[in-house]
Amino acid sequence: MKRRTLLATGASAAVAAALGAPVRAQTKTKVGFIYVGPINDGGWTQHHHESAMEMVAHFGDAVDFVYQESVPEGPDAERAITQMCLGGANIVFTTSFGYMDPTINVAAKFPDVKFEHATGYKQADNVGVYSAKFHEGRAVQGFLAGKMTKSNKIGYIASVPIPEVVLGINSAYIHAKKVNPDVEFKIVWIFEWLNPAKEADAAKALIEQGCDVVLQHTDSTAPQQAAKDAGNVYTFGQAADMAEFAPMPRISSIIDVWAPYYIKQVQAVMDGTWVSENTWDGIGEGMVGIGEISSAVPADIKAEAEALRDSIAGKSYNPFTGPLNKQDGSPWLADGEVAEDGVLAGLNFFVEGISGDIPS
Amino acid sequence: MDINPVFLLAAVIVASTPILLAAIGELVVERSGVLNLGVEGMMITGAVCGYIAGHQSGSALVGFAGAAAGGAAVAALFGLLTLGLLTNQVATGLALTLFGVGLAAMAGQGYVAPNPVSVPKLPIPGLSDIPALGHIFFNHDGMVYLSIALVVAVWWFLERSRGGLILRAIGENHEAAHALGYNVRRVRFAAILFGGACAGLGGAYISLVRVPQWIDNITAGAGWIALAIVVFAGWKPWRLVAGAYLFGGVTALQLNIQASGLAIPVEYLSMSPYIATIIVLAALSGGRAPGSLGKIFHASR
User: At residue B115, does pLDDT exceed 80?
Assistant: First the structure.
């Protein structure tokens, strides 16, 4: 009896030893990332990459991590994604709006691979979309901008005319206007996510025209440097904290917190429970972080900004709460009415008070 | 509308100088009969070398010297391949761009966004005190004056000196020049080095003055604009100045117009630098490509 138990145990141990290694190799999950910029751009892509590295650190040897940086949006992205799938990726994260159609196209060819597309709206059985409610953070920035400006002119470096960017401009404007009825927004579109020289030129143009707060929806730290050189101009970190420019000019920031989401979705692939979802989380869920409000901001204003942040996080306040009119003066939201997520995700107009057109 | 023309014109000069520097170098290269499409790669190498050298030494002068050396070093690689190993110039130039961008990204790791060195302004005594004009033209850093001086020097060299005559002869017909006893490869190699150094300075002007930081991909296509301006300027130095300043000017102007809220559709403003430059330089027509441009030379053929 005793000997038989011993033999059985030994046999099972031998079998486990023989099978163990190959089984582990098979279950290693290959995770791919496609980036629009270089991984050290100081903003959007760097933050995606750092979040991905946190995900890798979390799983250790259980994941095989591959990435490709500076992939142009458009047809070339299709090639890069396809290559990653042919390389055996189990899940591919495509981290820019312009990868939307390429992702959908490649996903149709690889039904067994899961795809996660950031900031888009097209889903498929194996394509999920995720984004953060950056506009919740923009509300806090707008509030601070309205409070801190002395010239009442606020500059906004806009990248590409898509709903996410338009939403940010609206949200910042609404909250700046609320605390400072005299504010005026000057918006410059540069049609690129990352072009340091152009971003610097745009920031300088805005500063020369009297803006003493510059918001940016582009990825590099060039506008921060321009503001620093100008002296008394306030800026906000975009996508990453950009803390190296604190306390002046950077007085706060929006931080994209992707790591928990990446860990959750890769885990789902490992468990075989992954389903295509449309995730759009904000401050409350922890996907949008508000960077430390620096010492350049007076304590009472800082406390008010933090209260605004907490009320958005706690869902007691929605940044898009009526009464709000569209740019042409026609009513949009009635008093107390709250905009639905579906409407916001496709927003393509300015609210009343912002001048200029959205390029098409 | 509150565009201040004095600030605007000063901004125009800052936006134009990198393109002007890279283009004047490429002009000399092309006049010697070599087509180097690697301007973007040499510029970005110069940008990162200039930033690193400037950051390590704390001196802008060392930074620009490092940028010129870096640009010339990758250009030397191009020269060895095309003149020594007789590789195709177009393919080699494109490869040089890809190589330069990658090399710069690698070299620049760890240099992202620390504090840059300051490049001092050198107001010209007397002249810089003239109201308005003084601030626009005579209150810049040394590189702006150098870029203009370089254009004058290149014009003089090409049109008035014996060395320039030899260089142009080699560019027009390398076999005839060779038959006359001129060393085609040596002259071309020198021209390529000059072009690389100029492109490097142009790149460093972006990373040390215009932005001023090291960020990957910082030149963002400025090298290609410089290449196009050389062609549209008909390989003539003065037109090149017009082209570079026009392009930089309309770029800075369109951002200012947007910021001032003038009701011009943004799409038109964004394309305006390219269109304005093409129209003006095409209207100035004339100018002909050097006869041996892009052709491979070997003494035995």
Answer: no
